[in-house]
């Protein structure tokens, strides 16, 4: 099996961080070569753009915000993701282009077709092999965000914004079920963990049952 590009996405507060640790353990236990990275970010210029994009003091138009997400992504692809995959190292990215469709498209209302144009230009036909979509009801997401001490520019958005973000994620997952695994994050940790592990086992056919 060629090296796989796996992404983890979902609304803020869906439990991505906890499950990144589960995914990390899963790869470590099997001694599979893997690189963990994130978006926006993953490179020096990407992390600088991340700081700007997440800073609540930043004033930026929707088109510029979208272009900066894709600028960070292009650098991430050239500098980190594609070289790792070429060397046979699996890559797990904490967010990728689904987040642009969900946040800039669903949340902020940018036409999905315009995002597709950028996706095709920046990535050509490169897409994740597997996307784990962490999903929780809006109330759970909002409750978790409210516990965050310093909210970033996106976390400061209101409930209706996150309703649209979540709907866009679920819509994308329903349209391409072969690529997405939707994980219900609104259960106890052990149940969520078992689901995430089962998804990886299925994808890699790497577990004895
Ligand atoms: P996080 O890494 O803590 O999830 O924060 C990243 C934030 O950036 C999150 O609120 C989602 C947002 N984001 C977008 O709006 N568009 C994108 O394309 C990406 C990658 C992230």
Automatic annotation (TrEMBL):
Binding site for ATP: 10-17
NCBIfam families (alphabetical): DTMP_kinase
Similarity comment: Belongs to the thymidylate kinase family.
Keywords from the named record: ATP-binding, Kinase, Nucleotide biosynthesis, Nucleotide-binding, Transferase
Enzyme class (EC, first level): transferase
Protein name as annotated: Thymidylate kinase
Cytoplasm found in the keyword field: no
All residue ranges annotated as the Thymidylate kinase-like domain in the record: 8-195
Catalysed transformations (reactions): dTMP + ATP = dTDP + ADP
């Amino acid at each position: 099996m060629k090296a796989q590009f796996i992404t983890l996405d979902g609304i803020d507060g869906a439990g991505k961080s906890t499950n990144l640790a589960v995914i990390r353990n899963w790869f470590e236990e099997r001694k599979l070569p893997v690189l963990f990275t994130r978006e926006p970010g993953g490179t020096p210029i990407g992390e600088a753009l991340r700081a700007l994009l997440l800073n609540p003091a930043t004033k930026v138009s929707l088109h510029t915000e979208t272009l900066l997400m894709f600028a960070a992504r292009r650098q991430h692809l050239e500098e980190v993701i594609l070289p790792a995959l070429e060397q046979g190292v699996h890559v797990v990215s904490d967010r990728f282009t689904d987040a642009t469709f969900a946040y800039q498209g669903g949340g902020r209302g940018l036409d999905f077709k315009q995002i597709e144009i950028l996706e095709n230009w920046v990535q050509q036909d490169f897409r994740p092999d597997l996307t784990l979509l962490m999903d929780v009801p809006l109330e759970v997401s909002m409750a978790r965000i409210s516990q965050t001490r310093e909210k970033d520019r996106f976390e400061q958005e209101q409930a209706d914004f996150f309703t649209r973000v979540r709907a866009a994620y679920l819509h994308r997952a329903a349209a391409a079920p072969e690529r997405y695994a939707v994980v219900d994050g609104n259960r106890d940790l052990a149940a969520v963990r078992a689901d995430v592990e089962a998804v990886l086992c299925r994808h890699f056919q790497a577990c004895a049952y």
